[in-house]
Amino acid sequence: MSARRHPRSTRAIFAWPMFIAVLSLIGLVAGLTGDGARDVLAWLLLGSAPVTIAFAYWRAGRPARPINSPARTKAPSHDRA
């Protein structure tokens, strides 16, 4: 028997994407307006998006595959023997 899925609010669905967008925006502004420590801050904040995506793939148990990988582009076989 499968578990019931409870509907989530719009706020719950978009909370993490909005958080990542705000971090990225702050990182872009920091990188454009200063040097030294602001550059380090920009790298950290802009790097949070790819790290979060990699963590989500790892947690979901799905390895990241290129779109044109053989597993994705293999056409179904319709041969009749």
UniProtKB/TrEMBL annotation:
Transmembrane parts of this sequence: 12-34, 40-58
Keyword line: Membrane, Transmembrane, Transmembrane helix
The protein's name in its UniProt record: DUF4175 domain-containing protein
Organism the protein comes from: Alteriqipengyuania abyssalis
Lineage: Bacteria, Pseudomonadati, Pseudomonadota, Alphaproteobacteria, Sphingomonadales
